[in-house]
């Protein structure tokens, strides 16, 4: 009897469902983990385990017990650390531990990019309220307050009037609530068009798949509302965004797998907002990218996790790339 390869997918939310479906279409046995037993992906998995994707020890133990062949997540940041641990323990393809830590901690990410001359906003790391007050004085104009290790715009807040102490205190408390260690960032507010860059790296070479224009709610929480491809930005900006993205991924150590890079085009040029070592959520990579480029990023991510070369040829010409 032919051995059926096993994939472990971290997360069973609606955003992970396309990966579960795709893996089953590829003939893999799909083992899904999530702390919520009622998550939509639980009922379509071949095996569902009610385990938090952030519990590195239990995730690793489950991976060893089921003798998985590969592991991935679709649109979640923090499970990346669990993927790194499992990959190292089972000696299967995956992100390196150091890179996983850098891309899941915004302070470490900022510090790494700064050292390597990748354009980022001016920022201060904050561990207590006194440091917070000093940072508000140091960084001129409007500022963004955000937790170092959250995702999906949770805990992000814009302070437009630093003299409004109610807002200043609220922003600190709100952002700290979403940080696992109470560490937050205060950084300059960047104004300009916002895009995300969807890319895939394989053996150290990065291919930019698509650049997405983003629509958000704007101040003060900046929740994403919609996305369009191809980007309407001018070609010279597209080239600069591509260059900055590749430099950022190289700097952070993302050599194999997908990435989702958020960038704001300021008057000084494009600057990195965040880099995620995973596929973009909100149906960007699962639905929008295939319609725009013909490239199946979910399938390619699974192929890389299996140790196979991805197919990154554009079959639809609806993007700059």
Distance between the termini: 44 Å
Contiguous uncertain segments of 5+ residues:
none
What is the correct CATH architecture of the largest domain? 2-Layer Sandwich
Q: Quick one: CATH superfamily of the largest domain? A: ATP-grasp fold, B domain
Largest sheet: 5 strands, antiparallel
Shape assignment: globular
The CATH class name of the largest domain reads Alpha Beta
Number of strands: 13
CATH topology of the largest domain: D-amino Acid Aminotransferase, Chain A, domain 1
Q: If strands are numbered along the chain, what order do they take across the biggest sheet?
A: 11-10-9-12-13
Number of helices: 10
Category from helices, strands and their pairing: alpha+beta
Total number of distinct structural domains: 3
Whole-number average pLDDT?
Answer: 93
Strand composition percent: 15-25%
Helix content: 25-40%
Overview features:
D-amino Acid Aminotransferase, Chain A, domain 1; 4-stranded parallel beta sheet; Dna Ligase, domain 1; Rossmann fold; 24% strand; alpha+beta
């Amino acid at each position: 009897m032919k051995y059926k390869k096993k994939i472990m997918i971290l997360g069973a939310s609606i955003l992970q469902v396309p990966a579960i479906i795709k893996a089953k279409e590829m003939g893999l046995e799909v083992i899904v983990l999530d702390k919520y037993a009622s998550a939509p992906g639980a009922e379509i998995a071949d095996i569902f385990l009610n385990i938090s994707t952030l519990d590195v020890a239990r995730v690793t133990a489950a991976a060893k017990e089921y003798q998985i062949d590969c592991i991935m997540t679709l649109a979640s940041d923090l499970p990346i650390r669990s993927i790194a641990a499992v990959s190292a323990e089972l000696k299967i393809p995956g992100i390196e531990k150091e890179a996983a830590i850098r891309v899941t901690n915004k302070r470490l990410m900022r510090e790494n990019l700064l050292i390597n001359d990748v354009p980022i906003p001016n920022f201060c790391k904050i561990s207590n309220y006194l440091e917070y007050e000093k940072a508000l004085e140091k960084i001129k104009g409007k500022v963004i307050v955000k937790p170092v290790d959250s995702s999906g715009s949770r805990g992000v807040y814009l302070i437009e009037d630093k003299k409004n102490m109610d807002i200043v205190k609220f922003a600190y408390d709100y952002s700290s609530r979403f940080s696992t260690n109470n560490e937050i960032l205060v950084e300059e507010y960047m104004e300009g068009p916002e895009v995300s860059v969807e890319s895939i790296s394989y053996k150290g070479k990065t291919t930019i798949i698509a650049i997405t224009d983003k629509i958000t709610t704007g101040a003060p929480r900046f929740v994403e509302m919609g996305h369009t491809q191809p980007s309407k930005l001018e070609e010279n900006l597209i080239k600069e965004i591509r260059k900055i993205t590749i430099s950022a991924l190289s700097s952070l150590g993302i050599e194999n797998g997908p990435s989702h890079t958020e960038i704001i085009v300021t008057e000084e040029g494009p600057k990195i907002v965040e880099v995620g070592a995973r596929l973009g959520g909100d149906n960007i990579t699962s639905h929008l990218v295939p319609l725009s480029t013909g490239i199946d990023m979910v399938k390619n991510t699974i192929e890389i996790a299996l140790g196979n070369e991805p197919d990154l040829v554009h079959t639809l010409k609806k993007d700059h790339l």
